[in-house]
Amino acid sequence: MNVPPRPNDLASFWMPFTANRQFKKAPRMFVAADGMHYTTDDGRKVLDGTAGLWCCNAGHNRPKIVEAIRQQAGELDYAPAFQMGHPKAFEFANRVTAIAPEGFDHVFFTNSGSESVDTALKMALAYHRVRGEAQRVRLIGRERGYHGINFGGMSVGGIAGNRKMFGVMLPGVDHIRHTHDLARNAFTRGEPEFGVEFADELERVCALHDPSTIAAVIVEPMAGSTGVLIPPKGYLQRLREICDKHGILLIFDEVITGFGRLGTPFASDRFGVKPDLFTAAKGLTNGVVPMGAVFTTSKIHDAFMTGPEHLIEFAHGYTYSANPIACAAGLGTLDTYAEDGLLTRGAELESYWADALHSLKGLPHVIDLRNLGLIGAIELEPIAGQPTKRAFDIFLDAYQSGILIRTTGDIIALSPPLIIEKAQIDELFGKLAEVLKRAA
Ligand code: PXG
Ligand code: PLP
């Protein structure tokens, strides 16, 4: 059994959401990160155009976060979260609810976006049940939605490729249509003019199932993972109205949009629409320690706080909920956001960012450009018969050119750390333009 360690053997690690065989033939390795840049194993600097995976909103190697983690690891490494507490969990909950939109006074901690989504769905079902509306068991998602990869999130999710391998999923789930409409909205800056009526699909679904059987509707206020679909003007307001009319909870999945990505702390601040529950992850700890959260109003939370006091009110939680090191990282992250004004910095940079993005109009294969906050998307005409290949080849060329971009299907998504400087925006789009010009 004396198998020697194999540090350079790439076989054992089955990589997530990766073309494993392609990667292992030509690995792309990051060995360090600082500020806006990664360093590769061959010593090149790569400009981070994606904040890791939409999560390092304050950039990399931020001293307050690093120090908080170091200290916490030496002081209290782990504490049980079930029937026990530790001070940083409460401190972090207080601090993070203080920056949440008004009324979101309670937070439940998880370890990822996927866990946050499943937690929010379970909370919605249980909320109706504790109030005596146990018949509300249906969950409504949206085509092209991404709500992580656990069974609940996958079931309400609407990205066909993420669903097709995995059987029948949760029963009682239906979907409204997505909002993508290139024919009317291509090359829009900010929120598209057309498509508020797509929200009326929810009325159709309500009529089909009887709205009194529907527990919740979950949407990303801005769909990220599917390739950046920005909600049409008035769309989210209308979803809110329909949910209110039928007593249905509205869940916003803010895993990407939370913590400043859209130029406001949360998407609901930007759009002026409040859900009943919302999820977060990624930027919660700047991506440094895995952590997620579900924020709720007192109306939801207090509905559970009945019955004998020795009984557990919500039979749900994770071994690592409110992990001390994650809470410490979260506190360091909030300090960093506050010091650098990052939760609103996107708003200051938005028009410069949008100008740079829209300067790509007219380059080969570009069929749409869209932006909101510090997010941009470039939709490409697919190569006939080879969907995703064009964008993937561009991703590889961009990496060689010193910029990290993200592709999904034939869409390039950009979401840099919120500390990005104007000169770095120029560099990102300048290099990307060169890559696009030589793309097949
Ligand atoms: N909800 C939303 C809206 C997300 O964007 C999740 C849930 C799941 O979070 P976890 O932490 O379980 O991965 C996400 C995650 C991409 C990309 O490039 C997007 C995500 C994750 C990885 C890559 O589009 N979104
Ligand atoms: N599986 C087994 C056998 C377990 O004992 C536990 C937790 O105790 C889990 C899964 C869930 O793990 P987690 O709480 O980290 O989600």
Automatic annotation (TrEMBL):
<dbReference type="GO" id="GO:0004015">
    <property type="term" value="F:adenosylmethionine-8-amino-7-oxononanoate transaminase activity"/>
</dbReference>
<keyword id="KW-0663">Pyridoxal phosphate</keyword>
<dbReference type="InterPro" id="IPR015424">
    <property type="entry name" value="PyrdxlP-dep_Trfase"/>
</dbReference>
<dbReference type="InterPro" id="IPR049704">
    <property type="entry name" value="Aminotrans_3_PPA_site"/>
</dbReference>
<comment type="similarity">
    <text>Belongs to the class-III pyridoxal-phosphate-dependent aminotransferase family.</text>
</comment>
<dbReference type="InterPro" id="IPR015421">
    <property type="entry name" value="PyrdxlP-dep_Trfase_major"/>
</dbReference>
<dbReference type="InterPro" id="IPR015422">
    <property type="entry name" value="PyrdxlP-dep_Trfase_small"/>
</dbReference>
<dbReference type="GO" id="GO:0030170">
    <property type="term" value="F:pyridoxal phosphate binding"/>
</dbReference>
<dbReference type="GO" id="GO:0009102">
    <property type="term" value="P:biotin biosynthetic process"/>
</dbReference>
<dbReference type="Pfam" id="PF00202">
    <property type="entry name" value="Aminotran_3"/>
</dbReference>
<keyword id="KW-0032">Aminotransferase</keyword>
<dbReference type="InterPro" id="IPR005814">
    <property type="entry name" value="Aminotrans_3"/>
</dbReference>
<protein>
    <submittedName>
        <fullName>Aspartate aminotransferase family protein</fullName>
    </submittedName>
</protein>
<keyword id="KW-0808">Transferase</keyword>
